Amino acid sequence: xxxxxxxxxxxFGVGAVVxxxxxxxxxxxxxxxxxxxxxxxxxxxxxxxxxxxxxxxFTSRVIATSDQAVGDTGYTWHVFPDGGAxxxxxxxxxxxxxxxxxxxxxxxxxxxxxxxxxGEITDAxxxxxxTAINCAGGPTPWGTWLSCEEFDWHGNAAATAxxxxxxxxxxxxxxxxxxxxxxxxxxxxxQHEAAAVDPVHEVVYLTEDQADGRLYRYTPTSYxxxxxxxxxxxxxDGEQVSWVEVPDPSAADLPTKDQVPGATVFAGGEGIWYSxxxxxxTTKRDNRVHAIDTAAQTYxxxxxxxxxxxxxxxxVDNITVEExxxxxxxxxxxxxxxVVIITPxxxxxxxxxxxxxxxxEITGPAFSPDGTRLYFSSQRGTDGNGITYEVTGPFRGAxxxxxxxxxxTVVASLDAAASAGDGGDPPEEDPVSxxxxxxxxxLFGALAAGxxxxxxxxxxxxxxxxxxxxxSTEDPQRSGEPxxxxxxxxxxxxxxTR
Length: 498
Fold this sequence. Notes:
The two termini are 32 Å apart. Strands 1, 2, 21, 22, 23 and 24 form a six-stranded mixed β-sheet that branches. A five-stranded antiparallel β-sheet has the order 12-13-14-15-16. The chain is 8% helix and 34% strand. The protein has one domain (3-404): Neuraminidase (6 Propeller). The protein is built from five helices and 27 strands. With 498 residues, it is mainly β.
């Protein structure tokens, strides 16, 4: 969903539209059924030129490889590509953003690739730098990307000093590179994994990648400005979910996960996504997919590998939902290196497989705004260099936009916001060409300052493929192997628990 549309829909106010939750009709994990999926089996498929097994009618291309220039842009793609998302642009193209899970202090961040309306690469650039272990994150309905750091150095002063924080933070970033990134400490310092915005109830859900991690909910003081708010941890009793406030989100004296006695433990929180009244998230260590009805605050497991005998899905990790069909796409960490579909009917089936990458994982699944292309990465490829792919084909949720419809974009909305902020006319030039001189992150709050973001926004968010915002910096230099130079924390390195 584009920003002007978001603001306009928000003006309808709370209660304008009732959004029914995604059910995933095999609501209990006992109902998950292994199958061939909506596109047929890939068992007989032959690897294509890029080593991918795909259903008939689908093709792939490599759009970026770590330590190599992206297309003709001259920009060097980052190492260890992880979580990602896409956003529409004002020229009917789109931007794909990707985290870098580089583990050395200051070598993480986020990069972006820009495409024109025909899918050709036109630009690539850095939107966040000087961070570390940027794992996953999540798009916001107002067009920013929340990039999450995944580390926790409690009890290790040397590591804390090296990384600049006792634990991982969340950054709000700009996919165009116009606005400067900002850190959001009120969203908690812990071993962050991913984030999902519920625009109806105006909260953000957050996962924690620890063996004894928690699930969090963040309620901004002045939604959609995420600068201040209340952080809570989930307590699940049967099917009912309640929330208890975290006393100290800065985790100065005690890890965030240990501050709420009785908070429910989740075994390695991974990807999370909001779709039509449901937040769905994964836990890697027990190979489960969970769902929360955000209105009723009820909880259920919709997939459990131990129960769904014969199902292909193991090593559950990053996720995305194809909004047009409701198909949930789950990336595997290791196992068969597959992208697996869970349909709304509860059928579980491999969609794609990367061959020959035994020591890697699938990361960053995200659909182009029109739903015709799926992006994801093999984080470490065959030689430690990540590879980012694009798969094109007849996805059943693809939507063709009305050519006569208004198409406002992230870029155009930033122009409008800048104009509103200073009383002048919007700049005539594309701000992407002048990223270093762009407006500050404070504009993010101004973009929706007068809007009541409610169910009308959620309805439009069905077609949202939004992502993030950040600062334009030089690409940090790759420095050694992933674990080289990382301070000894006395804790498990998050990369080793993957």
